[in-house]
Amino acid sequence: MKINILTGPFFLPPPGRAGAVEKIWRGLGEEFAAQGHEVTVLCRAYPELSEEELIRGVRYLRRSGFSRTGVLAADLMKDLAYSLATRRRIPPADVTVTNVFWLPALPLRAGWGKVVVSVERRPKGQMRLYARAARLRATSRAVAEAILA
């Protein structure tokens, strides 16, 4: 199976500056690859890391990205710019998993396969934007209950 994992514009999977979400998806990507799946991670670029490399069977494509401002509206605009730029680079897959805020709200492409939105934090009204996603994945029971509410 071909699996894409798209992380957000602010952090990237290790060895770069990673948050908990990026660390989790790196581990899952490696596990998927170990089970024989073809895994591609699209993530933020970082000056010290190459744009493309293969690590433990996972292909990393690093493009663009931003630093957080701490201002929600500005960070959401950066996420939108990242989503628009990244969506053009998503390779064909059977499943595409993402935790990027705007990407699943934009028109989805058939070549991406089933789109799974990984909801890592308590939602703040954006779930209605993800109506076209095949699945929502909650990181905890509290987040799942907030999604259902």
Walk me through the topology.
Blueprint: E1 2-6, H1 20-34, E2 38-43, E3 52-55, E4 58-62, H2 72-87, E5 95-98, E6 114-119, E7 135-138, H3 141-148
Parallel strand pairs: 1-2, 1-5, 2-4, 5-6, 6-7
Antiparallel strand pairs: 3-4
3D structure, described in words:
The chain is α/β, with parallel strands linked by helices and 149 residues long. The chain is built from three helices and seven strands. The chain has a seven-stranded mixed sheet. Strand 3 (52-55) and strand 4 (58-62) form a beta hairpin. It starts with a strand and ends with a helix.
Offer a quick outline of the entry:
The protein is α/β, with parallel strands linked by helices and 149 residues long. The protein contains three helices and seven strands.
Question: Can you tag this structure with a few keywords?
Answer:
alpha/beta; globular; 7 strands; 23% strand; 149 residues; seven-stranded mixed sheet; single chain
